[in-house]
Amino acid sequence: MAGQVQRQTGVALWRQIADRIRQAISAGAYDETGMVPPEMALATQFGVNRHTVRSALAALAQEGIVRAVQGRGTLIERKERLNFPISKRTRFNSGIGEQARETRGLLLGHGEEAASDEVARWLKLAPGTRVIRLETVRKADGRPVSSATSWFPAARFAGMRDAYETTESITRAFAELGLSDYIRATTEITAAHAEAADLSALELTPGAIVLITKAMNTDLDGVPVQYSVTRFAADRVQFTIEN
Amino acid sequence: MAGQVQRQTGVALWRQIADRIRQAISAGAYDETGMVPPEMALATQFGVNRHTVRSALAALAQEGIVRAVQGRGTLIERKERLNFPISKRTRFNSGIGEQARETRGLLLGHGEEAASDEVARWLKLAPGTRVIRLETVRKADGRPVSSATSWFPAARFAGMRDAYETTESITRAFAELGLSDYIRATTEITAAHAEAADLSALELTPGAIVLITKAMNTDLDGVPVQYSVTRFAADRVQFTIEN
DNA sequence: TTTAAATGTCTATTGATATAGACAACCATA
DNA sequence: TATGGTTGTCTATATCAATAGACATTTAAA
Which of A80, B11, B50, B233 could anchor a disulfide with B43, C-beta 3.0 to 4.6 Å? Predict the structure, then answer.
């Protein structure tokens, strides 16, 4: 972890350390164990006394973020980010569901174009086939969670743009166009440093991490209906793969 | 000045007070005298001992922002902010003008929606009338200065989104849509602590102050053409009301 | 010159912050 | 059951943060 705590700045060491640990928890640094490192390890890491670390952990316990258990360790109770389950029935809005009061999908741009080789391969179309492209940003409780570029076969989903703008949801837009159900066939997940476009679209700061998914949905007959490249603010989501 | 200092938060009182005074200086609160109020007056205002205020002023002197002169007072040496004149001809780009080498306006999001009661009242429309909403961030020399949400009557300014994205300027976008001149009719100014969205949009740190303006522009016939809620990084701007 | 108002300096006291060490209590596991 | 690792609690000490009061020094104005 980069950056040491600073002394004599008017900000108590225990507060600086609490802020750092809270951030690390949100970033998923301790997901493997579900626990914060032992107090002595943290004290060594930050170069302070164990009691100072205990003050920081006490503050986080007061916030309900961690819970110390004598003899075992300090368990992480709550992560201030959204869980995003990925399964055959992956949908953004129902996935976020009860974790946010309000979800919105904003259309930033759109177009109709010839399918690139990549898009054609995922949608199992001949290269050059006409596709509809939508650029969207999805928000939960006003916070941008992801920005996505999605392609749909133009012949089948000509009204996709209007349907999405009305419903603010891919699922509901599909329903309006006569596709009542669909299946998440494939999802690829990678990570990268945020690019300039991510910074504004997702309201990130330079150096932030984005999780990138490439996903393909099919109808119930296995025919591809959507290919999406989605970029998530890494400190606001985690993925859960369900089988 | 709203908001008192908080005790036992891990942030020393002298640091909270230093931050508040720095912000007040940036906001132009002491422009009439060019001096900070006397130590005893500040101590009374913040409800602390004079020595605590002296610690805060010593920190600001260390930063080169103020300079104490025995027998006279504490003089303001440097203000880290842009001047933002507000008048009938208020425009962001010409207002900042020579103070920055480069200004940009980035479109973060947009939409078309039914006017809320607040928007309808300001634009003098019937509630529910369609309006176009633009979410923008304005930068000067790469530093975010303000983030704004603006509403325009959809019937009259249908192409606002494209025009703004092309010109990166409300004034030039209006010109492209046939409105060559407009007048700043009303401006409301308030202040608040930065919210989570401000921190990323304006690249602020927790505890920072934002200045919030609610403004309405009209055409030369007095018909409202724009209502904006704009949030400024308070330590980077000051407003000057010109009549 | 006198006076008022402002900053500068000093002593003293209290509470919060941070370090140091020792040991108890508890848990998982060999 | 024995052991190692973890959190919980206690005492002690030093430093920082904040308050309180007194008085000196400097400046501007009456």
Answer: B50
